[in-house]
Design a protein that fits this description.
The complex is a heterodimer of chains A (103) and B (631). Chain A contains three helices and no strands. With 103 residues, chain A is an all-alpha fold. By secondary structure, chain B is mainly alpha-helical. Chain B has four domains: 216 residues, no CATH class; 247 residues, no CATH class; 33 residues, no CATH class; 46 residues, no CATH class. Chain B is 71% helix and 3% strand. Chain B has 26 helices and two strands. In chain B, strands 1-2 form a two-stranded antiparallel ribbon. Chain B is globular, with a radius of gyration of 29 Å. The chains are: A mainly alpha (103), B mainly alpha (631). The interface between A and B is medium-sized, with 13 and 11 residues. Chain B: This is NADH-quinone oxidoreductase subunit L.
Chain lengths: 103, 631
Amino acid sequence: MKTSVSAEVVVLLAGLLFALGIVGVIIRKNIVFMLLSVEIMLNASGLAFVAAGSRWGQPDGQVMFVFILAMAAAEVSIGLALILQIYHQHKSLDIDNLKEMNG
Amino acid sequence: MLMDKYLWLIPALPLGGFFILALIGKNMSRTWVATVGAGSICLSALVTFVVGGAFLSGMPENTVYTQTLWTWFEVGEFSAKITLSLDVLSLVFVFVITFIGALIHIYSTAFMEADRDYARFFASMNLFVFSMLVLVLADNLLLMYLGWEGVGLCSYLLIGFWYEQPTNGNAARKAFTVTRIGDAAMAIGLFMVFQQAGTLVVSDIGANASVIWQPNSATVTITALLLLAGGLGKSAQLPLQTWLPDAMAGPSPVSALIHAATMVTAGVYLVARMHTIFALSETARLVVAIIGAATLLLAGLTALTQYDIKRVLAYSTISQIGYMFLALGVGAWTAAVFHFMIHAFFKALLFLAAGAIIESLHHEHNMFKMGGLKDKMPVVFWTFLAGAISLAAVPLISAGFYSKDQILWYSWSADGGSPVLWAVALAGALITATYTTRMMILTFWGESHTHIGHLPGKRMTVPLVVLAVFSVFAGFIELPHNFGHFTLFSDFLHPVLPETAMQENIPSEWLFQLLAALATLGGIFLGYYYYYQQPARIASLRQNGLLVRLYRFWFSGWAFDALYDRMLVRPFVFIARINKSDITDKLYTGISGMTGEMYKLLSRTQSGSLRWYIMGLVVGAILILGIQIML
């Protein structure tokens, strides 16, 4: 199947998604949403890999994407576990309330 | 004869004694402390007799015993070895150190009996004997310097032995600091010797001295004078003599061993040992002679005015060492060493006897409060008298006469001698006899002023008697050339020390001996007249304002302490005071203050806010990417 979408457009989309993710991490107060935004950034980079792989006809891009998926799964499980612990201890998920490690 | 392999035992025994006493001395009984402390030195003296006997019987073939124990360190081509070498000169010193040291240790076992730091005393004394033996047995100047510093340390420890009195601590610090000035000069002298000769081994320097140095060149003079400065510090000669009178704060056996018989003559040993260097520089020898002459006169006049018996003896020690330096300066090497040996006998005796008197009179040092001890302490009186006639050099019957007469004779007739030096030495002999008589009369005659406690026991009187015998008879091993001509001692030393070069056309030696005898008898008469026959005359002399001022000036030791206080101590204290908050310290406090400020600044970025951290990351990434794109 031949698509007419060029690699540049896909990378641009990936960049957009990545920027969205970063903005999400920075402006969100809730840790769960920050984790979600991190996932978006991961997927954006995965998309960029796939686009590059198809542009040069190499399998490496897709291989990297599989790695990223596996890593994202692990990261989410650990991240969620940490979030649960934080909620247990502080009864809050607001990142602005969790400033104990200052100075 | 393979006795030389036991040479190492001579210093090793005192060192062993020191280690035992220093490590477990506190838990030992007094008897054991005394046994170890005095026993080690007695054994060492015994080994000295055995090794010395073997050495003398094997003399003609082999004039030096050397024993290399191990290599201390090697740097490049230079290797410092722990090597002991025994020749006739060091044998004389080793004999005096171990023999007199053993007697003084035996005396100390009784003298220090009541002291609670019995073990510490003997540990320090043993360490001293060890260091002194290293000093005289060392075959290279570096090892000698080790012993040199070791005796300085022990002197400091023992002057400040009764450290609870602040004045004793001050005296110890003064001795340490003043001798350190000489030692620093000596260290520079050693560097110069090494730079020019490439070696510090004494025998190599001696053999090649005339090749290495031009006679009378500036370098050899400077080297000799730097070495001399070290000797002046240790031997309490002008201008570094101020520490010795204060050093009398230590126990009397310490004064006898360290500050009269052995350590203070280290300077004499050094100059005699390095005589090859001094022989090459006329200026240096002249300086030695002048310093010796000036010191003997100055210290003699000071001794006339003191009332503390130990201070009289201290100044007379300075004065007698001045005679030795005078002899060294005019080139009468053997005469200096001979006077050293005789002086060690009678001065150790005088100090020990003075210690016995002070102890019996409940720590009374003032001679004017003694008096009348002649009949109450007969043993001390007779032994003290033997030492005193030797110090005063009473003609014919005392050892001191033979050694001092030789110096007087050479101070005119030897190559470096001159009538002026002789006149000063003769005046010194008169003064010596006067203050010795004054000391004898004030202490032993007249009315008793202080109640006498317990009399000294056997362990104190036996060393006194032995030393008294030597003080009287040791002089007979070297009789003047004109009667007897019995020169055992100088013949004995000639393998190491050269013959004294003489001037030509000098008056007869008889004349000199007559004048020396007259000076001594005149001095004794002066002392007898003013202090025994006509004591009222002293009071009338006190009326004279000029004499009183002179008396005060002499009493203060020619105001040297005040001079040094003005010249050195006060400027130093002044600088120290204005620089209380150390100027160089500002740099370091500045650095630490700046670091603190930067830490505060940076720690504010550690806000704990995760979102700020990410912001920082993003901005940083954008910046780096931006820079990369721009470039």
